[in-house]
């Protein structure tokens, strides 16, 4: 099986989304107030919100699918078409559209499996330090309003370094 990916692009898009969603993770008190909410319904509510958010982004002129890896399968081999990284103008448009959509849709539904603001900030700081330790000029994240995070820099990073730092930082899904 052959898989090619643009980890920097995936990381950028992921941080934009996860950074914004981390602000919406339930506090321990909030989690205690809604014990009936099972993970399946949380997942469905979140998925519905995410689809509405992606549609809103598209309505605002940012088709997020243009930045996502497209996969096709032929038996055991998976080919992935890697899109061009977003330009500075694309990133600015993403930020503007995200602000509009966050205002329109409000916060996403809470999910017990999302990191808290503090946990997400710690993961991003650990990632940034790891990248600096690997020899890159990589700034600390700059938290914005409501726990959102400005887009991280796109650079010429070795995918192995990014994978190692994502794992070290403890980002969900980075273990594999």
Radius of gyration: 17 Å
**Overall 3D form:** globular
Question: How far do the termini sit from each other?
Answer: 15 Å
Mean pLDDT: 71
Relative helix content: 40-55%
Per DSSP E runs of 2 or more residues, the count of β-strands stands at 2
Count of folded domains? 1
DSSP summary: helix tally: 6
Q: Beta-strand level of the residues, as a percent range? A: 5-15%
Major sheet details:
2 strands, antiparallel
Poorly predicted runs: 1-37
Give helix and strand order, one letter per element, not per position. Answer: HHHEEHHH
Spatial ordering of strands, largest sheet: 1-2
Class computed from helices, strands and strand pairing: mainly alpha
Protein described:
The chain is mostly helical and 176 residues long. It contains six helices and two strands, in the order αααββααα. It has helices at 7-22, 28-33, 39-59, 88-105, 117-133, 159-169, and strands at residues 70-74, 77-81. Strands 1-2 form a two-stranded antiparallel ribbon.
């Amino acid at each position: 099986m052959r898989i090619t990916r643009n980890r920097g692009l995936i990381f950028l898009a992921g941080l934009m989304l996860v950074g914004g969603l981390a602000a919406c993770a339930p506090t321990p008190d909030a989690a205690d107030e809604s014990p009936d909410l099972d993970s399946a319904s949380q997942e469905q509510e979140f998925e519905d919100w995410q689809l509405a958010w992606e549609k809103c982004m598209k309505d605002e002129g940012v088709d997020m699918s243009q930045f996502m890896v497209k996969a096709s399968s032929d038996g055991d081999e998976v080919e992935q078409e890697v899109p061009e990284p977003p330009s500075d103008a694309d990133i600015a448009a993403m930020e503007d559209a995200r602000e509009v959509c966050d205002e329109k849709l409000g916060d996403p539904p809470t999910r017990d499996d999302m990191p808290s603001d503090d946990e997400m900030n710690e993961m991003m700081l650990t990632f940034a330090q790891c990248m600096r330790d690997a020899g890159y000029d990589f700034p600390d994240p700059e938290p914005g309003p409501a726990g959102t995070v400005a887009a991280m820099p796109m650079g010429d990073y070795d995918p192995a370094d990014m994978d190692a730092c994502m794992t070290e930082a403890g980002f969900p899904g980075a273990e594999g």
